[in-house]
């Protein structure tokens, strides 16, 4: 007997004997079970011989119940599917109370499903999103593996808080009520588990740089943590970041890498997850129909993904972007919340979205930002006021990638750290890289959930990670 999953069975020729286990989506006319095992968006229809099946068993075939079915795979007698299973034996593995089961066969709001996140992957939308998330993860590893990168596991607990990418979560085993104190009355972290103050990492970049400077091409793909109180549809307190880091690569190479990488992973899912993408595409088209014309998407999801894969990202310097924004209609008509007046202003998401969605209408790479709005480790340009930074902005998402060429000159780096009061003692190992065989090197960070949002068309980041962690929320 072959044990094939539903995805395989649906593509199979008739088979005399099959066994399948899954969860009942619907049971109609005491005869037709729509069964799903998570392997595909599609259910397999299982036809029950109700005349020869116990009434007590029929009653237990309810939405959500787990069942085991043995039968014959035959050409379907009805419309809507090529094959179906003629049920010979049916066993209820786990009952589901139809009165209380939250995932009824009807439309549920995403808010409701977030509260039932442990069961939401039993819906078409969330199973499609999470299969795509899984497939995208694989595509990420495949891309780097195919291109000679080493996968590096950077530490999750870190003793350095110098990265400056965001507020951190402290990791401590000290007694919260009665911590040991130093003579001057501060908490004595020498008594803490690691003998120092430690936090959850905001980024694996600094450690990745150390391995790039020996293994050449490395990447990390792991969880990162930021304790910012930003309750938006694009921010999580725990998110996954992909960070490649490459020796002897400059900013132009970094932009090429990021663009090629993003096109490659999007292409991968366009090819391998057709059903799920098509389902999400249609979901959005239906949603669009309920909106006024002006709010509808110009491109469908599939058109948008193809557009990104087929067109060059527009590369624009920060200085050019500021000129465009300063002269833009929303700036002149004072429609932006933050008006752009001078060179040096930090760009807000309203500005990023204007550039991407209204002005260029394609993904944009902004580069050469003012030094004082970017991190200490970015390579200072010859003008002495801009750094070799780049951000990639995507339509509907805003910033999806942040990266830079790193400062490889010991003296310049030390000067910068001194100005920002970053301890040389703490980052002695980072400075060593600039003492022993320093070289041009670059890398970037891609927020994985923002990529999943873009690919699935989901508009809230809480809906593209299994169990979102956000301010005031760590359920499940
Ligand atoms: O721009 P960020 O802060 O860059 C860094 O952390 C660098 N160390 C990366 C590097 O050069 N290796 O973050 C990178 C990306 C952002 O562009 C965004 O996509 C995502 O991480 N990101 C978040 N995603 C979800 N929730 C948050 N709170 C995020 N903060 C950043």
Short structural description:
Homodimer. 32% of the residues lie in helices and 23% in strands.
List the helices and strands and how they pair.
Blueprint: H1 6-10, E1 15-28, E2 32-36, E3 44-47, H2 55-59, E4 66-75, E5 83-94, H3 110-115, H4 124-146, E6 150-151, E7 157-158, E8 170-171, E9 198-200, H5 205-215, E10 217-225, E11 238-247, H6 251-272, H7 274-289, H8 301-310, E12 314-317, H9 318-326, H10 329-332, H11 349-360, E13 364-370, E14 386-394, E15 398-405, H12 410-420, H13 428-435, E16 441-447, H14 448-456
Parallel strand pairs: 3-5, 6-10, 12-13
Antiparallel strand pairs: 1-2, 1-4, 2-3, 4-5, 7-9, 8-9, 10-11, 11-16, 13-14, 14-15, 15-16
Helix pairs in contact: 4-6, 4-7, 4-14, 6-8
Domain Aminoacyl-transfer RNA synthetases class-II family profile: 130-466
Subcellular location: Cytoplasm
GO molecular function, one term: asparagine-tRNA ligase activity
Count of DSSP H/I helices: 14
Using only CA atoms, what is the Rg? 27 Å
Multimerization status:
single chain
Q: Catalogue the unreliable spans.
A: none
Number of strands: 16
Distance between the termini: 38 Å
The CATH topology of the largest domain, please? BirA Bifunctional Protein, domain 2
Description of the structure:
By secondary structure, the chain is an alpha+beta fold. It folds into two domains: 6-101, Nucleic acid-binding proteins (OB fold (Dihydrolipoamide Acetyltransferase, E2P)); 124-167 and 202-463, Bira Bifunctional Protein, Domain 2 (BirA Bifunctional Protein, domain 2), CATH 3.30.930.10. It has helices at 6-10, 55-59, 110-115, 124-146, 205-215, 251-272, 274-289, 301-310, 318-326, 329-332, 349-360, 410-420, 428-435, 448-456, and strands spanning 15-28, 32-36, 44-47, 66-75, 83-94, 150-151, 157-158, 170-171, 198-200, 217-225, 238-247, 314-317, 364-370, 386-394, 398-405, 441-447. The strands form three sheets. The protein has an eight-stranded mixed sheet with strand order 6-10-11-16-15-14-13-12, with helices on both faces. It has a five-stranded mixed barrel with strand order 1-2-3-5-4. A three-stranded antiparallel sheet has the order 7-9-8, with no helix packed on it. A hairpin with a 7-residue loop joins strand 2 and strand 3 (44-47). The longest helix is centred in the first third of the chain and has 23 residues, at 124-146. It is globular and about 85 Å long. The two termini are 38 Å apart. The structure holds 4-amino-1,4-dioxobutan-2-aminium adenosine-5'-monophosphate. 4-amino-1,4-dioxobutan-2-aminium adenosine-5'-monophosphate (4AD) binds at residues 165, 203, 205, 226, 235-236, 239, 241, 243, 399-403, 443-445, 447, 449-450.
């Amino acid at each position: 007997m072959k044990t094939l999953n539903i995805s395989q069975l649906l593509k199979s020729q008739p088979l005399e004997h099959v066994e399948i286990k899954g969860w009942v989506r619907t049971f109609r006319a005491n005869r037709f079970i729509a069964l799903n095992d998570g392997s595909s968006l599609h259910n397999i229809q299982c036809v029950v011989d109700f005349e020869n099946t116990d009434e007590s068993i029929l009653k237990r075939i309810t939405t959500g119940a787990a069942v085991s079915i043995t039968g014959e795979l035959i050409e379907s007698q009805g419309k809507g599917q090529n094959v179906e299973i003629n049920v010979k034996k049916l066993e209820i593995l786990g009952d589901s109370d139809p009165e209380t089961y939250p995932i009824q066969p009807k439309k549920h709001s995403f808010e409701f499903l977030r509260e039932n996140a442990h069961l939401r992957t039993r819906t078409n939308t969330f199973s499609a999103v999470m299969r795509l998330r899984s497939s995208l993860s694989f595509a990420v590893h495949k891309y780097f593996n195919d291109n000679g990168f080493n996968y590096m596991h950077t530490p999750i607990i870190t003793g350095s808080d110098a990265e400056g990418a965001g507020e951190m979560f402290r990791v401590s085993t000290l007694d919260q009520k009665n911590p040991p104190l130093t003579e001057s009355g501060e908490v004595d972290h020498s008594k803490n588990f690691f003998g120092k103050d430690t936090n959850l990492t905001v980024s694996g970049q600094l450690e990745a740089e150390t391995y790039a400077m020996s293994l050449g091409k490395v990447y990390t793909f792991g969880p990162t943590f930021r304790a910012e109180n930003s309750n938006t549809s694009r921010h999580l307190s725990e998110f996954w970041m992909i960070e490649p880091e490459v020796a002897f690569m400059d900013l132009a190479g970094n932009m090429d890498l990021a663009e090629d990488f993003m096109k490659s992973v999007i292409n991968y899912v366009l090819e391998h997850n057709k059903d799920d993408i098509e389902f999400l595409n249609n979901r959005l088209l239906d949603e669009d129909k309920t909106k006024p014309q002006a709010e509808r998407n110009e491109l469908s999801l599939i058109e948008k993904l193809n557009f990104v894969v087929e067109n060059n990202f527009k590369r624009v310097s920060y200085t050019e972007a500021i000129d465009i924004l300063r002269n833009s209609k929303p700036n002149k008509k004072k429609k932006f919340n933050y008006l752009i007046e001078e060179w040096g202003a930090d760009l807000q998401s309203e500005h990023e979205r204007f550039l991407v969605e209204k002005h260029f209408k394609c993904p944009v790479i902004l580069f050469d930002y003012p030094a004082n709005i970017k991190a200490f480790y970015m390579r200072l340009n010859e003008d002495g006021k801009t750094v070799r930074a780049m951000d990639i902005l995507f339509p509907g998402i805003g910033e999806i990638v942040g990266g830079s060429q790193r400062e490889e000159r010991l003296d310049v780096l030390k000067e910068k750290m001194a100005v920002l009061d970053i301890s040389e003692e703490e980052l002695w190992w980072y400075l060593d890289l600039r003492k022993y065989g320093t070289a041009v090197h670059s890398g970037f960070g891609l927020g994985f959930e923002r990529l999943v949002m873009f690919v699935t068309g989901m508009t809230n980041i809480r809906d593209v990670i299994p169990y979102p962690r956000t301010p005031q929320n760590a359920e499940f």
